[in-house]
Amino acid sequence: AQKITQTQPGMFVQEKEAVTLDCTYDTSDPSYGLFWYKQPSSGEMIFLIYQGSYDQQNATEGRYSLNFQKARKSANLVISASQLGDSAMYFCAMRESGSSNTGKLIFGQGTTLQVKP
Amino acid sequence: DAGITQSPRHKVTETGTPVTLRCHQTENHRYMYWYRQDPGHGLRLIHYSYGVKDTDKGEVSDGYSVSRSKTEDFLLTLESATSSQTSVYFCAISEAWGTGELFFGEGSRLTVL
Fold it and tell me: What is the mean predicted confidence (pLDDT) over A2-12?
């Protein structure tokens, strides 16, 4: 069964430093998609970045990059040059190709990131 | 931003009462979802819809029902609310093409006393 695991309940990072948020997944489907979402204290869910299982390069979006290691089944989010506004909860999520006709995602438990000034 | 509105945004109710949460979209997206968010569990799928009158159960569907009579509206009903259904409920929408990311509503906080 598909599963997403985020093992870091909470993390701290100094402003302007880089931080890596861990995500591992389990699936037997060769085709899948991986997503990261940010949830600030205001509560909304913000889509950050997407990685397809067949993508040759790691996805990047501004200060966000996804360190995709397929053999290890990990999809870690890297935030470079942390800012105070990056303080939030971050969720990793996955969609299997078998869900392509429904689009549903499964989510990890989340990691709370606090950026220190 | 995707046009998704949830109502009510906050509700306090008593055990045993029926509750309906509404999700309304203006994006004409085919897929709609109801998730609940609880500490330590992330977001868990309750029900989803892949078209008008086409719905299916998610991971935590017990005690919930849904209806979708038109593309833009997806209703979540708790027939008889219990304290274990105290949660934040998120509606989301997506389309079938591209990366297929979900766009979320602002959430509805439900407290069952």
Answer: 93
